[in-house]
Structure formats: C-alpha cells, structure tokens
Amino acid sequence: xxxxxxxxxxxxxxxxxKLELIFEMEEDLIxxxxxxxxxxxxxxxxxxxxxxxxxxxxxxxxLDLIVxxxxxxxxxxxxxxxxxxPERTFxxxxxxxxxxxxxFRLKAKPIFSDGKMTEIVIxxxxxxxxxxxxxxxxxxxxxxxxxNRILSLERQRTSQRKSLLEELNKMKSDFVSNISHELxxxxxxxxxxxxxxxxxxxxPEAMKAEFNYTILNEGKRLARLINDILDISKLEGGKxxxxxxxxxxxxxxxxxxxxxxxxxxxxxxxxxxxxxxGEILIEADKERISQMxxxxxxxxxxxxxxxxxxxVIVKNLFREVEIIIxxxxxxxxxxxxxxxxxxxxxxxxPGTEIxxxxxxxxxxxxxxxxxxxxxxxxxEVDKGTTFSVKLPKNHI
Length: 396
Prior knowledge:
Elements lengths: L1 H6 L4 H14 L3 E6 L4 E4 L1 H7 L3 H4 L4 H4 L2 H15 L5 E8 L5 E13 L2 E11 L1 H72 L5 H32 L8 E4 H18 L3 E5 L6 E4 L1 H17 L6 E8 L3 E8 L32 H11 L3 E7 L3 E9 L4
Parallel strand pairs: 7-9
Antiparallel strand pairs: 1-2, 1-5, 3-4, 4-5, 6-8, 9-10, 10-12, 11-12
Helix pairs in contact: 7-8, 8-11, 9-10, 10-11
C-alpha cells in the first residue's frame, strides 16, 4: 500500500511526520507493545499522565505497570488478541512512576505487517475522575440511605409521641371521670344520710347511730381519696421528704395485717401471714412504708373474690428485706402489667366495675423509689397476683 501511495505522489516522509505529530498530540495514553509485551513506544501525554520519563518506561513489561487485581483481565485480553481478536476493551489501573494507581479504560488492537501481528497498540482513557464520581455517588447513596433511615425513625418517633399524647389524654380523661365518680359516691351518701337525719327529728336513736356510722365511714373514705391525690402531687413535685428512723419491720407488718383482718373477713377471704420470729430492723420512713404495705394489702383484698386467699410473707435477706403479698384474685392481663405503675392507668376489665382512681400503685411505686427499693409483679388472669417488694435495710 505504501508503494502505491508513493507511486501516486504522496511523500512518505511527510506522512510519517504527520502520524508522529498525531501520536504526540493525542491527549489519551498511547502505548505500543512488541509481541513479548514490552513497551517500545509511548506518547508524550501518556508519559505526563503516568509521571514517567521515556527512558524509565521503555522496555518495561506492560504487566509490571498493571495493578495486581487487574492483571488477570489484562492477560485475558492480550491472549484473545494474540488468538485473532480484532480488539479488546477493558478497564485496568496502572501504576504511575510514584506508585499511585490511575484507572484507565484501555482499548488494545493488533498491528500487522506482511500478514503477521508484530505489535499491539493500547489507547488508554483516564477514567480516574469517573471512579471518583462513582465513589462520590456511592457515598451520596449511603448518605441518602442514612438520611432516609433517620427520617423514618423521626416519623416513627413523631407517631409514637402522638400516640403517647393521645393515650395520656385518654388516661387523664378516664382519671377525671373516675375521680369524679369516686368523689360523688361518698358525698352522695354523706348528704343523703345527713338530710334523712335532719328531716326526721323522731328518728330512733339506733337508726340515727347507724346513719352516723355510715356518714363517718364515707367521710373517712373521702378524706383518704383526697389525701391520695395530694400525696401523689407532693411526691411528683418532690415536696415530700421521708423521715428515716430505725424500726422493726416484722412488728409493723403485723400491725398493718391486723388492721385489714376485718376487711378480709367481711369478704370471707383467708388472710394469712408468714413472718419470721425476732426483729428485722430497717432504716426507712415508718409511716410511708406502712401506707405502702396497706395499699398493696388493700388491693389484694379488693381484687380477690369471696373464699379466696391473701398471704403476706416477709423474708430476711442479707442486705434487704423482702415483702411478698400474694392473692388468688382476678389477676391482671399480661398486656396491662407493664403499665400498672403509670399515673391515671386503670386495668380495663369489661363487665367488672371495681371502684378506684388508679393512683394506689403509683403511690406505692414512688414510695419504694424514694427508699431506693424495688417492686416486681407476677400475675395471671383469674389465678391471682403476687407483688414482691425489696427494701434495703440501711438507708444510704
């Protein structure tokens, strides 16, 4: 072909210079390899991109410049060209003179002379910036995923807060309704019996004494209810200070249990105790501990049906005293157990109307917390409930 070009008047030397000029002006990396894979020619821009001098790269085997993880793909491409493939395109990272890795998209083509492949030319386009863009895109994807997760969590938290507020509002409404009922009931009795006495001067003394007894009991009930509300308010506001004294918890337990014997007998409930002999001295607020035990014992009797059993056990542990109050009552549903110490919370028992404000166990928990104690509960519907209270013997 060159002979034909020569015959047609084309100056081969000029053509050669033009080819050389194009070779040197090409912005991409151009490498010419011999059949052994040695670099025999490299363009100027290629040298700049790899930070090599020509003398340092010529006669270097191409695989010596290829980063290890790309060598297998490079060898495969060259083998396919040797076996007759017209060209191959692949990606490979090439070491620069200073050892940094630069990613290229390489196109390898064979060069033939007299029908035989004599050299392989490689044209490489630097795609390092594309790799950086890919990494940046991946980072942005990760950040987007993280942002979406955070957004999802915030939505869940917002939804939970909304649900919690709605539940709290409902509990407050129920509390107001319950407390109103609890206040009206004793008031109605007090007013009703008082009006009856006032309107009947001739009322027999025995009947008047019975009415006065009812008025007194309802008045005490009303006073206890008001005190419950005030105590909870004071406890939450940190206005109640506990008075620490040393006393015998066994003696106190017996006194509290004796106070509730009549209530148990009225409902035909067996009230038993298992208290060790001797003293168990603890440092605590005696009055508050008495109130706390009374609330638990009152609940046990209130929620136990006739012919049921309530048992109180005291255990003398090493640094603590454990008080167990167990009953065979109606029990607490499993779903309600985690919430029973929350303010305003009342267990929903369809068809069972048992009076109460939902404050008793709140008071119990707060008194125990003030003494750095611990309370746990085990309950099963229609089988009973067991409260376990652990109090430190020494107040620290």
